[in-house]
Amino acid sequence: MVGRPAVPEVIWARPERAGRGPKPVFSRADIADAAVRIADAEGIDAVSMRKVAAELGCGTMSLYNYVPRKEDLYELMVDRVSAAYELPEHPSGDWRADLVALAHQTRALMHRHTWVPRLMSPVYGFSPNALRFLEYALSCLDGLDARFGEKMELVAMVNGMVTTYVSNEIATAERSRSLPWSEEQEQAVRTGYLISQIMTGKYPRMAAAFAEDSGPIDLDEVFDRALGRVLDSFERSAS
């Protein structure tokens, strides 16, 4: 395949376009933007080198001169949307507040680009915007008395918690959209069944939980509580 490397390489260490010839027609940003548009409109499974090439108006084979592998295309996409992070020049000095703010930005970004959680992996950790994010996140933790290894673990845990949480939110929303009835109708039927089971007396703890808080669940509050518990665990271990 044209442009494919014979050995492992990092896309960011590779020239914008491999091979001889005239000045490149497209930039990596152009290619990433095209792929992001497709993923946003049709989902990540719809992204292919053929579709991206068609979006750009070029031949599929010529695209490999810019992006050797589909995995590299994914990395370009994740980095491109990560440019949307608004990172202050300096953190506030309150490491918990700063990490909470980052987590909320990540959650919002993933809801704007619902395919991102599926691509979150260490392989996408070395792009320019990923490194920019990580350096800022670590700078937020300058006031935390912990080793850098522990700080890296904390950032990874926060990102993992956000990714898992948003993945569930997205999956729930996608399921609701696929139903032939409204989400309210679905929820009413399921709640009615749950109540009928609780009323049998077989589930006293569930009955107590339901009596204590029958809902509806505020997903924003649950998100903040879960995030707080992650931060609490590191605050205690560092004290």
CA radius of gyration is 23 Å
Q: What are the segments in which pLDDT stays under 50 over at least 5 consecutive residues?
A: none
* Termini separation: 55 Å
Number of strands: 0
SS class: mainly alpha
**What is the name of the CATH class of the largest domain?**
Mainly Alpha
Helix content: 55-70%
- The global form is flat
Number of domains: 2
CATH superfamily of the largest domain: Tetracycline Repressor, domain 2
Q: What is the CATH architecture assignment of the largest domain?
A: Orthogonal Bundle
The CATH topology of the largest domain is what? Tetracycline Repressor, domain 2
- Mean pLDDT across all residues, rounded? 89
> H/E order of the elements?
HHHHHHHHHHH
Number of H- or I-type helical stretches = 11
- Portion of residues in beta strands equals under 5%
Pfam families: TetR_C_1, TetR_N
Domain HTH tetR-type: 25-85
Keywords: DNA-binding, Transcription, Transcription regulation
Protein name: TetR/AcrR family transcriptional regulator
